[in-house]
Design a protein that fits this description.
heterodimer; A: about 110 residues; mainly beta; 6-stranded mixed beta sheet; 4-stranded antiparallel beta sheet; B: about 110 residues; 7-stranded mixed beta sheet; 11 strands; about 50% strand
Chain lengths: ~110, ~110
């Protein structure tokens, strides 16, 4: 069975600082990987996804993520955080059955 | 193009009452999903459907029922509400299994 771990429950960064959110997955083969963002009171919006090919994927809002097979990781990065990036971020994996399994989320606070 | 819509946005139920959460999508997606989100947790899959007339259980189906009579609609039924069903419920849809899922805004349900 597949699983996803987001080790950081809450991260606080200053506006303009760089950001990295960690995601580790467990799955025997190459999974489909996703990052979603959830603003307060809203549904989830896809930031980016990895299916195959180039291991560095670009997403919306200036986010990128890198798939590292050797580390079973798919960390999300942004070079300069904006106050509007404050939200909860979910990593998700889809294995052979292509059902999404979500991590427990990382809450991002951005300080002015 | 409204995407995925859910009604109601909020609801308070008494223990033992029943209700139906409505979900409609206008993207002609075959795949539809129901998730629940509890505080500090990721999303858990309740039920999903791969097309009209076809539904299947997810990770946490107990206490819920679904039907899929049309491509557009995927209602979730709670027959005998229990406090453990207090949660935020999200409906989602996708074109193919494993593809990006598009989420509705959610229904916040409280069972007292």
């Amino acid at each position: 069975a597949q699983s996803v771990t987001q080790p950081d429950i809450h991260i606080t960064v200053s506006e303009g600082a760089s950001l990295e959110l960690r995601c580790n997955y467990s799955y025997g083969a190459t999974p489909y990987l996703f990052w979603y963002v959830q603003s307060p009171g809203q549904g989830l919006q896809l930031l980016l996804k990895y299916f195959s090919g180039d291991t560095l994927v670009q997403g919306i809002k200036g986010f990128e993520a890198e798939f590292k097979r050797s580390q079973s990781s798919f960390n999300l990065r942004k070079p300069s955080v904006h106050w509007s990036d404050a939200a909860e971020y979910f990593c998700a994996v889809a294995g052979s059955a292509r059902q999404l399994t979500f991590g427990s989320g990382t809450q991002l606070t951005v300080l002015p | 193009n409204a995407g995925v819509t859910q009604t109601p946005k909020f609801r308070i139920l008494k223990i033992g009452q029943s209700m139906t959460l409505q979900c409609t999508q206008d993207m002609n997606h075959n795949y539809m999903y129901w998730y629940r989100q509890d505080p500090g947790m990721g999303l858990k899959l309740i039920y999903y459907s791969v097309g009209a007339g076809i539904t299947d259980k997810g990770e946490v189906p107990n206490g819920y029922n679904v039907s899929r009579s049309t491509t557009e609609d995927f209602p979730l039924r709670l027959e005998l509400a229990a406090p453990s069903q207090t949660s935020v419920y999200f409906c989602a849809s996708s074109y193919r299994q494993g593809d990006e899922q598009f989420f509705g805004p959610g229904t916040r349900l409280t069972v007292l």
